[in-house]
Amino acid sequence: MFVNVNANLANRARFIGEFDSLPDTQVAFSEFKYSRGAEVFGEAEPADYIYQVVSGAVRSYKLLSDGRRQIGAFHLVGDIFGLGNGAAHRFTAEAIVDTTLRLVRRTSLEHVAETNALVARNLLSMTANNLQHAEDHMLLLGRKTSLERVAAFLLEMDCRLTAAGVMALPMSRRDIADYLGLTLETVSRALSYLHDRGILGFLGQTQRQIVLLDRVALAELDL
Amino acid sequence: MFVNVNANLANRARFIGEFDSLPDTQVAFSEFKYSRGAEVFGEAEPADYIYQVVSGAVRSYKLLSDGRRQIGAFHLVGDIFGLGNGAAHRFTAEAIVDTTLRLVRRTSLEHVAETNALVARNLLSMTANNLQHAEDHMLLLGRKTSLERVAAFLLEMDCRLTAAGVMALPMSRRDIADYLGLTLETVSRALSYLHDRGILGFLGQTQRQIVLLDRVALAELDL
DNA sequence: CGGTGGGTTGAGGTATTTCAAGGCTCGTGG
DNA sequence: CCACGAGCCTTGAAATACCTCAACCCACCG
Prior knowledge:
Two copies of one chain form a homodimer. By secondary structure, chain A is α+β, with helices and mostly antiparallel strands. Helix content of chain A is 36%, strand content 24%.
């Protein structure tokens, strides 16, 4: 269906410069485009690069043998992902929409980290942030009700991607469901419930542009 | 009910030496005992120390306001925990049984990491291991059935604490349930099911000593 | 001994899933 | 320009996996 962009990596470098979030270092990076649905890397593939989202959005997930999917994280503009993987990736990463990524060789970054304590500290702190997110998500997946999960999701996305009062979700109901450990129907019902209560509103007809009308009520649903 | 041992930290140091798992460094540590049920640290408390289990076992968990509990990890003999917390702990940690811990000041370790790349690398790799565990656990909590969860738990504990063919679980059914996002009754039923199938056996009458009779069947239940 | 803290098992309830139908949007092609 | 299908979302009804409530057992301990 989609071209695997990785195959063309060597031919498509566009730009070399500094990795913004790792100041005071000279690490070469390249920039690539992935079309909607394209795989950035697969689970268990060698982890040669780490990535930063320039535009678009990415989902990382694990699959069970029968197709059940758990999305571990959404990566939005500015996010860095593909870290803390040791030699091999532990997730599959896919572009949710057309996406541009910056990538740097993992080895080059690790090499710099050997001598530069600031970079080493940065790597550790980014990994610790990922860990914190995963820990919070375990609580959500293990112990929260469907409504609490959806409320938590909306509040998270509100922080991360609301612009001008409106939250434009890049991901489908199925993606949200697989992130929250629910079915897409349950997510849809929870959103309808919140809509009926006047806690959120939809803009346009796509159902992906959401306005949070009552953040307080939402925060009370999350615990 | 239980004395908070932290209050007595300064008075009870017993031993100073090297932290085994951080070779080539001179980091001072102390050793303390916690009785069954004692809190090692609470969520949101300042993270002054990191810990290593010398004997016993520890659970780290988060609570929701209404008492729902999610155990994020069990820490068994040799495990290091309390890492990657930034300035404050994100879990509560409690001794499951009478437990001895080694502790080192977080600041002293971080200080060493500034100059010693090996220690820095070690910190990163331990944090990455915690992250990997959390990622795997998200898949379990979000997408696995109760039987799959219990099978995965048994296989994990089998690796981590089986001695002489028998697995002596330190934790109660309730702890297991809160680790797996289930109720204790569901855990008990899953264990009974596996017992009835001849996949595992109980030793003694406490139901906490388990023998895995058919690891292959168990691995097939996990996916 | 009586009480307490596990653990198991049964019966019934319920939150969420599953199955099914229908609507809306958008791109494509006749 | 409209018909058509595909993808996405919503909603309803029925099924079910897991939870809740409750009883009971057993080991341990003062």
